[in-house]
Specification:
By secondary structure, this protein is of the alpha/beta class. It is built from 8 helices and 9 strands. The strands form 2 sheets. A 7-stranded mixed beta sheet has the order 3-2-1-4-7-9-8, sandwiched between helices. It has a two-stranded antiparallel ribbon with strand order 5-6. The chain is globular.
Length: about 230
């Protein structure tokens, strides 16, 4: 069992979306794990690097970033980057994982956020990851007639208590990350193939400061929280 499960499309998505929050929860004693759906093999403009070579590098980058934040474990499902779909096959796999690890809370992308702040079109893999995760949480993971073959494997139903949608279109919950902002920056720098020489500290701090103003704290991350129990 784990306390918190983050389900995201790509390596680096957990850190960009909620790295400060994961670090804070881990510090508070919650057991956190990630499920990364795609292989991250297309996260570059370098055609020579793209593919299996990049996928291998990004696994190691993600493991290092998770270690920095205090995340216990990372599962990589290895779906093709850039073409993720919320299929029944993937839904079944996530139901299996949710029933196996039985998280109290799940963090995933907000699938309704197709664009953000008039300057960013959300990656379709993020939308698909959020959609399939929500479908796995409700009703599938808590419903015995859904995927009965999982019952035969000893995986009984499980009800996730709370869902936190990252990158939300309509946030209703904020986490103060003032004490873990630097850990978030360090974790993002571990994703060297993604951030390169970009001024990570500058843009992450500015982003967290903007959200913090909404929450009345120096630095924050925003979510849409859904309480199912």
């Amino acid at each position: 069992m784990v306390d918190v499960m983050g389900i995201f499309a790509h390596p680096d998505d957990p850190e960009f979306s909620a790295g400060g929050t994961f670090a804070r929860w881990a510090r508070e004693g919650r057991e956190v794990m990630y499920v990364i759906l795609t292989d991250g093999s297309k996260g570059t403009d370098d055609i020579e690097l793209a593919g299996e070579r990049l996928a291998r590098i990004r696994v190691e980058e993600q493991r290092e970033a998770a270690r920095i934040l205090g995340v216990k474990d990372v599962l990589f499902l290895g779906y093709e980057d850039g073409v993720l779909q919320p299929t029944i096959e993937l839904r079944r796999e996530l139901v299996r994982i949710i029933r196996l690890y039985r998280p109290q809370w799940v963090v995933c992308p907000d699938p309704t956020a197709r664009y953000l702040a008039d300057r960013y079109i959300n990656h379709p893999d993020h939308v698909a990851a959020g959609e399939v995760t929500l479908a796995a949480i409700f009703p599938a993971a808590r419903n015995r007639p859904t995927f009965p073959e999982l019952l035969k494997q000893g995986l009984d139903v499980h009800t996730v208590e709370e869902v936190y949608l990252s990158g939300p279109r309509e946030p209703n919950f904020f986490v103060d990350i003032s004490e873990t902002l630097e850990l978030k920056v360090r974790a993002l720098r571990a994703h060297r193939t993604q951030v390169g020489e970009r001024p990570v500290h500058e843009f992450v701090t500015r982003w967290a400061e903007e959200v913090g103003k909404l929450a009345g704290v120096p630095y924050a991350e925003a979510f849409r929280r859904i309480r199912l129990v």
